[in-house]
């Protein structure tokens, strides 16, 4: 986005860099606003981030939104693995933390509803990961027992800790940063894997089922 600000709207490099940093920081802090539509709120975030160039906010937001949707996809191996798991009669749930509208925006955009038997968004509930209640609710609605379920996630402090606190049978951690390590026993996963593809043999799925679709 910084390159586009410089190329398309001729912002100086320092202004483009600062605008992107400010927007990203504000967006991560508050991706949604209960009293505004998503488009209106995020345009206001760009107004704030662009400073002297705030008159460009609407144009910049539309380009940012298009780019965001372009990259907001389930990659081939991940989608293939989820499809294969369901084909093998595994029951799959998705639990995600965050405001309801912004999370459902992502869920719908990537087509997640086609791959999961249940989707829970913390913004729709009174609890979130790592609270055991949200895991127990998922198990209850999926009609499975916690001790017959596992958690797969990339965040130790929410996914792995929550899965362990809820009494799930196993937790699989996929670190986003290879150098990241658990800092306490409570966050120690049952297994650490490099990618979703590593789950295939564990769940009895042949490599060709996720690589040749």
TrEMBL record:
Keywords: Hydrolase, Magnesium
Cofactors that this protein relies on: Mg(2+)
Top-level taxon: Eukaryota
UniProt cross-references to InterPro entries, sorted A to Z: HAD-like_hydrolase (IPR051400), HAD-like_sf (IPR036412), HAD-SF_hydro_IA (IPR006439), HAD_sf (IPR023214)
Gene Ontology BP, a term: N-acetylneuraminate biosynthetic process
MF-aspect GO terms: N-acylneuraminate-9-phosphatase activity
Keyword Magnesium belongs to the record: yes
UniProt xrefs under NCBIfam families: HAD-SF-IA-v1, HAD-SF-IA-v3
PANTHER family (UniProt xref): N-ACYLNEURAMINATE-9-PHOSPHATASE
UniProt protein name: N-acylneuraminate-9-phosphatase
Organism placement in taxonomy: Eukaryota, Metazoa, Ecdysozoa, Arthropoda, Crustacea
């Amino acid at each position: 986005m910084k390159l586009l600000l410089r190329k398309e709207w001729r912002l100086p490099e320092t202004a483009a860099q600062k605008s992107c940093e400010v927007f990203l920081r504000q967006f991560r802090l508050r991706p949604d606003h209960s009293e505004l539509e998503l488009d209106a709120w995020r345009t206001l975030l760009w107004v704030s981030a662009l400073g002297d160039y705030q008159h460009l906010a609407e144009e910049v937001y539309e380009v940012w939104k298009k780019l965001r949707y372009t990259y907001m996809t389930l990659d081939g191996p991940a989608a293939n693995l989820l499809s294969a798991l369901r084909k093998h009669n595994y029951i799959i749930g998705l639990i995600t933390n965050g405001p309801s509208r912004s999370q459902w925006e992502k869920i719908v955009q990537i087509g997640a509803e086609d791959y999961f038997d249940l989707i829970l968004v913390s913004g729709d509930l009174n609890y979130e990961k790592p609270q055991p209640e949200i895991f127990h609710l998922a198990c209850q609605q999926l009609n499975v027992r916690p001790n017959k379920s596992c958690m797969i996630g990339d965040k130790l402090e929410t996914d792995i800790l929550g899965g362990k606190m809820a009494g799930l049978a196993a937790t699989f951690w996929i670190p986003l940063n290879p150098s990241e390590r658990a800092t306490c026993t409570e966050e120690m996963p049952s297994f650490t894997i490099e990618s979703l593809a590593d789950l295939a043999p564990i769940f009895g799925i042949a490599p060709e089922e996720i690589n040749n679709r």
